[in-house]
Amino acid sequence: MVSKTKRVLAMILTGMMAASALAGCTPTETTEGGGTNSTAASATESAAAGDGASKAAGGEVQDIEAMTDNIKAKMKEEAAATGGKISLTFWCASDDRKFEKSRIEEFKKKYGGDGYEFDISVKAAFGEGEAGGKILESPKDGADVFNFADDQLSTLVESKAIAPVIELFNSNVVANNSEETVSAYQIDGVPYAFPKTSDNGYFLYYDKRVYPTEADVANLDDMIKKAAENNKNVYFNIGNGWYNAAFYFSAGVTIKYENGKQTTTFNTDEGFNAAKAMCHVAENAGKGFVGTDGGSGDNSAVAKGFKDGSLAAAVIGTWEGPAIKEAIGADNVGAAKLPTALIAGEQKQLHSFGGYKLIGVNQFTKYPVTSQTLAYFLSNTESQIARYKERGLIPTDLKALEDKDIQSDPARKAISDQQPFSHGQGSSVGGKYWSTNVGGFGGEIVTKKGKISDDELKKSLQSIQTQIDT
Amino acid sequence: MDFLDYAQLTTGQKISYKIKSFFTGIPGAIAAIFAAIGRFFKGIFTWIGKGIGGYGSRFAKGDAGTKASYLIMGAGNILHGQIGKGLCFLAVEVAYFMFMINFGWSYITKIYGMNVQVDDNTIVSGVIGTQPPIYDVDPLFGAKTVTNLDTLDDSNKVLLFFVMTIIVSIAFFAVYITNTKSAFATQEIIAEGKKPIGFIDELKMFLDERFHVTMLIIPVLGLLVFTVLPIIFTIFMAFTNYDKEHQPPGNMYWWVGFKNFADVFYSNPDKSATFGKILVWTLVWAVFATFTNYIFGIILALMINKKEIKFKAFWRTMFVVTAAVPQFVTLLICKLLLADGGPINTTLMSMGMNAIPFLSNADYARVTVIVVNMWVGIPYTMLITSGLLMNIPEDLYESARIDGANAFQQFTKITFPYIFFVTTPYLITTFVGNINNFNVIYFLTGGGPSPASYYKAGQTDLLVTWLYKLTTVSSDFNLAAVIGIIVFVICAAGSLITFNMSKASKNEEEFS
Amino acid sequence: MTNTSSMQTGYAAKKKAVNTLIYVILSIMVLIWIFPIVWLVLASFSGDGITTGLVPTKFTFDNYIRLAQDHDKDGHVYAPEDMPFPYFKWILNTFIVAVLSCVISTLIILMVSYAFSRLRFKSRKTFLNLGLILGMFPGFMSMAATYNIMEIFGLKQNLFALVIVYSAGAGLGYQVAKGFFDTIPRSLDEAAKIDGATRNQIFWIIILPLSKPIIVYTALTTFIGPWADYIFVSYFMKDNSDSYTIALGLYRMIGQETMNEYFTVFCAGAVLIAIPITILFVIMQRFYVAGVTGGAVKG
């Protein structure tokens, strides 16, 4: 149904391009007539003209370059309402500010035109972690374009604070990204954001001096044992619902978010097995295993731990990569997919959330098309490669991933090895999941060093399940 | 027992008397509160009755000017020669009608929107606002936009302006009644053959007989606009479904009656269980936090202010320094110091001891927050008590010494009763302050640890920090408003009981 | 009956023992109280980045320099307008807000407490009770509504909005000052009234000069408030980092992404603002104590 709508839109669009190119007048004036007159022929033409890389998830790939003049005309139209000036606000993390600013300069060069000027203010107030929440606080006062982590997508969509991506850009994003990536920014088949980096998930960082070979990091129990022998620890924050989902996923628990509804099967044998597996690991708490962030609410324990030598490995993501490198030296840093864990008597590969960082456009922006163009520009192949070179963030774009430097990055390899066992957050968890204290339950397990009776485990799982069901 | 009798008791007797009178007083105080509430409503009804009666009889007895002022405000005053005052009344009337026509009335009509299409396939009555957002797709690019962003009804704004209109109307009504009274009063003065007071003289009264009006007008206006108005707004919010799925301007919200209260008290097992547990902890916390600070603060002040102790300024300064550093800094530092892998635990472990889960184990965390709160609060109590100690009339001690009282007796007979007497209101405010103590909990534990059975909260969360999380993290605005009201009721009931019972409220001028 | 001199020496010895005990207790308490502060100061000079030990291993002034002239991880100095954490701009903002709200709040508190303490009027009790009731609503419960009101006044994300928020509610904080006014004998007012003074004149000429300590106390507390408030600023200023006050600014420094890099800079920033406030506190406190003893007239 949805894809059908999109296809119709695409047809209208291509028809428009032809019509406006012929007529040479402003697009809006020709809309009514031109749009309906568009023929299937022109749509097929454009499909043929495209590189043929279109996927089932999206419509025909549309040529953005060919549309540049139309986009500029639209920008002029949007600017006219506010006195010829396009005043946009863009939110990013403070350490990304310099880089994003330089890309935005490129954007201005490319899309600048007569009759309007850009006034884009880059604010480093809110990073990906909190931008979504800040938008929700007061959507109209939020940034026009903002970076956010994909776990906030569902809440943003529920509040109708984020604008759906227009087909012109979405068709290109779909063509350039893997299906997993595409599913991460779609909800019920509607695209809501532009993928920017693929490294918002977690995998394993380890100290090569403790684990010289990849075989050493294959199994969680062995890793903990070896760490304990070296008077070190393995850090895996299962007191956090985002990280401990690894166990639930591996044990076969369903965690799904569809049509604004959260479905899970915590209160099952699988859920129980996962909890038991965590208890088994938590028995080592303090002796080779660190299972919570120590109440700090952030990841500062990781950098600290590697620096003072108390950590040998950590389940964490690229954002701690630079700090770990600084702590133990780049040559000693290893990265790999998560190890296996003992679940219900057998070793099972731990799953993870394959997180993405996305760029979203505020539903209430005064410049919808300009904002979407900017968001697309900042997430295109070129920007993603530049972002890797400057900021070390792993791209999502398939063409960007072919870059030589990126190919040889250990973190990239770890991410792509973990990929088959990773789950998109947008399609797995909604706001409700986070409000159930799945994490608190994990924290309880760690604090009690896994000494919780089966009955109590089941009771807690049941409580989580009821919280989600009601 | 009046204060003089009371002051003769020993400390032990005093405390037991206080405790006894506290508990024996509770039923009486509760009854007194209900009686007061009853009197309040009775008072209101008699007042309204009298008001209507007076309103009618003034009209009946009024002359043409007075009668005219029932329609045209200030007419009576103008006709009776008080032109300045009359014009003021008239200006108020004109301004009010301008306000209503141009602004206020439309929000009264919008507060209960009938059959509003809030969604593609949902039509609801009782929506706050009548004009829902209209989504449209721009034909060339397919960008989905809200086309009526400037004209749609943002439920928040509608509700806010509605409350504002009501407040303005009540204020106008008060002025209107004053206007009829004033017209009638001048009529009577003229009938007695006197001349009504001039405008300038009347204004001068605001520096003397009516000086309280001058002193209170700005603070009261400030409170009305920036405290009362938002509070009423938020109370209304508790009766709506304003949560993340009904967030303006993309959505609208509507009235749902007492559903949110039912959720918190019984109908939603997760929310009500969480509420119960947090409520108990909030009360336990408030009692401990208040009294530990109070008692140890007084002891510290006494130690420092003991005559023979030298370097008073030094001691005081040392403690004051901790109060001078902004709380969130010191609290974040404490959190870091006390973290599982923090400096204190690292040091403990290097000394061969076990690490202590100060913040990550619920029982420890609860003790930790109370202890850290002492660290934060004792310097304040110490400062305030120090000031009070200086304030005790020296001649009281003089006569006590002549009577042969030793230092301990002086303390129990003079110092402690005085401090306790003067600080009872302070104690109440501190108690209320601790129920609302956000900083210590939020910056130290963030409410954690959070077990599965808590809805969006943790084991050290107070009602207020839960409220904050509901507002900023989960966008459960309606639930947050319910919690806010409950916090208010607890604080109000608790302090009304103690306040009614404390002698401080009755004998506020005794020490002068 | 007994030898008085030995009793006296016994008494003196006991007294000395008590005093020594008090000194010991005070010293231990001071150590406990001052320890986090000392740690904060040490961390502010630390070159270790985020610290795990009690004492840093490397000492540096870099953290303080970075408050004024920050650089990124590669050592490139930020242009002033690009500073991720414009510390001194935030200090200036806080100072403006603190001064304005201190002046307004102090005036309001004095007015309200004077009216309630010294003046008798018909609805006094009602107002007193209403004031108490209003004070019992959680402060930030209606934050969202207040934000909307500021928007109506055109003060969205404006420093003056903060001034208003901090001072508009000040009227509810009258208890302490009222308690003070209650201790000034009413005979003073009566005498002045007989001399023909209006209540206005009594307030300015008689009561205010006697109220120095409470004025100082009120001014002090209202001045300090904005330096520590985090909740309102973060809700009101949102992304407008040019209008942050120092508490929010410092808090941002130790957000998830910047914690590791900026923790010690945060400590330096905290130390820098703590120094003047502490000095202020200490000076004011001497004034305060002297004021309380000298100013109050006993009846």
Question: Could you list some keywords that capture this structure?
Answer:
heterotrimer; A: 470 residues; D-Maltodextrin-Binding Protein, domain 2; 2 domains; five-stranded mixed beta sheet; 49% helix; globular; C: 299 residues; mainly alpha; 13 helices
Any overview of this molecule?
- The complex is a heterotrimer of chains A (470), B (512) and C (299).
- Chain A has 470 residues and is of the alpha/beta class.
- Chain A folds into 2 domains: 64-198 and 356-411, D-Maltodextrin-Binding Protein, domain 2; 203-352 and 435-469, Periplasmic binding protein-like II (D-Maltodextrin-Binding Protein, domain 2, 3-Layer(aba) Sandwich).
- Helices cover 49% and strands 16% of the residues of chain A.
- Chain B is mainly alpha-helical and 512 residues long.
- Chain B has 3 domains: 3-53; 62-257, no CATH class; 264-506, MetI-like (MetI-like fold), CATH 1.10.3720.10.
- In chain B, the strands form 2 sheets. Chain B has a two-stranded antiparallel sheet. A two-stranded antiparallel ribbon of chain B has the order 3-4.
- In chain B, strand 3 and strand 4 (144-146) form a beta hairpin.
- The longest helix of chain B has 51 residues, at 11-61.
- The relative contact order of chain B is 0.09.
- Chain C has 299 residues and is mostly helical.
- Chain C folds into 2 domains: 4-68, no CATH class; 81-295, MetI-like fold.
- Helices cover 70% and strands 0% of the residues of chain C.
- The radius of gyration of chain C is 25 Å and the shape is flat.
- Mean pLDDT of chain C is 84; it is low at 290-299.
- Classes of the chains: A alpha/beta (470), B mainly alpha (512), C mainly alpha (299).
- The interface between A and C is medium-sized, with 30 and 26 residues.
Topology (elements, then pairings):
The complex is a heterotrimer of chains A (470), B (512) and C (299).
Chain A: H1 2-23, H2 27-37, H3 40-49, H4 68-80, E1 85-91, H5 97-111, E2 117-123, H6 128-137, E3 145-149, H7 153-158, H8 167-176, H9 179-184, E4 186-187, E5 190-191, E6 194-197, E7 203-207, H10 220-229, E8 233-235, H11 241-251, E9 255-258, E10 261-264, H12 269-282, E11 289-290, H13 300-307, E12 311-316, H14 321-328, E13 333-336, E14 340-343, E15 346-349, E16 352-354, E17 357-361, H15 368-379, H16 381-391, H17 398-401, H18 404-407, H19 410-418, E18 422-424, H20 425-428, H21 431-434, H22 438-447, H23 454-469
Parallel strand pairs in A: 1-2, 1-3, 8-11, 8-12, 16-18
Antiparallel strand pairs in A: 3-17, 4-5, 6-17, 7-12, 7-13, 9-10, 14-15
Helix pairs in contact in A: 1-2, 1-3, 4-15, 11-12, 11-22, 12-22, 12-23, 13-14
Chain B: H1 3-8, H2 11-61, H3 64-69, H4 75-79, H5 83-110, E1 116-119, E2 122-124, E3 135-137, E4 144-146, H6 155-191, H7 199-204, H8 211-237, H9 259-267, H10 269-305, H11 312-324, H12 327-338, H13 343-350, H14 362-391, H15 394-402, H16 407-435, H17 439-444, H18 463-472, H19 477-501, H20 503-506
Antiparallel strand pairs in B: 1-2, 3-4
Helix pairs in contact in B: 2-6, 2-19, 5-6, 6-8, 8-19, 9-10, 10-14, 10-16, 11-14, 16-19, 18-19
Chain C: H1 4-44, H2 62-68, H3 87-118, H4 124-134, H5 143-152, H6 159-168, H7 175-183, H8 186-194, H9 199-210, H10 212-228, H11 231-237, H12 246-253, H13 259-295
Helix pairs in contact in C: 1-13, 2-13, 3-6, 3-7, 3-10, 6-11, 10-13
